[in-house]
């Protein structure tokens, strides 16, 4: 490994002050696919899934507190962070479907000896969580979705306000290599606009080292391609899966809480509780929080309170 590669690796792992008491792991969930993550604490198992354009570091402000009550497992989704990025010529759209990422997540938990678990997921991770709940209903005890609505509903109800704010949903799904080329030409500028521009406080809400790790992912062409492929999957094969769920009446069965930022696009464009209720057989609870999109980093204390109260055994 070159010096520059080693430095990039350390940036992606974050500083040592984060996730103290946690062990790093890498689990091979299928041939050629390894998932990186951290595990810490004791108690009921809790899986944490991040969103775009981030990695497991989004949980750094809550993970150590959660580990006092739960066995916390925080992973980098396939294609993100330090997990496997499949080579372009060897992947298909299905390789980054939420069904594939859900299988990865369940595989990691099984590796750690957990047949069922609590689940808290943000943004793209919540789309993976949705698929876990439907494809593996016996695995999830309860789930919390952060600042999102179901994928099918968001695409089918797209309006001007949503399209303007979430332009990247339509930019990233364009054919390879168009979005990859533009992002890689200036990854810092893309991140400055995409993350800093989606919060009323700008990028100051993010820990400097965590933000550095998010930018580092965008400097890796394989990572950029993987993230684009994950979005491309959402716009076709994932929609096919959700439409089939509706036809087969397959819904989320476990208790579900949804939390969203009142300064974000979910508040402006969707009735989050209703949208999740439409795909759930159990009663959905939830509320908006006084923040933007990045709840784990903007409102960690409130999120901790919600997790402990909702997942109380």
TrEMBL record:
GO MF terms, alphabetically ordered: hydrolase activity
Residues making up the signal peptide according to the UniProt record: none
Keyword Hydrolase in record: yes
SUPFAM superfamilies: alpha/beta-Hydrolases
Domain named AB hydrolase-1: residues: 44-298
KW Transcription regulation (keyword) present: no
InterPro entries recorded: AB_hydrolase_1 (IPR000073), AB_hydrolase_fold (IPR029058), Epox_hydrolase-like (IPR000639)
Coiled coil: none
Record key words, sorted: Hydrolase
Xref: Gene3D superfamilies: alpha/beta hydrolase
PANTHER family, sorted: EPOXIDE HYDROLASE
Assigned protein family: Belongs to the AB hydrolase superfamily. Epoxide hydrolase family.
This protein's name: AB hydrolase-1 domain-containing protein
Taxonomic classification: Eukaryota, Fungi, Dikarya, Ascomycota, Pezizomycotina
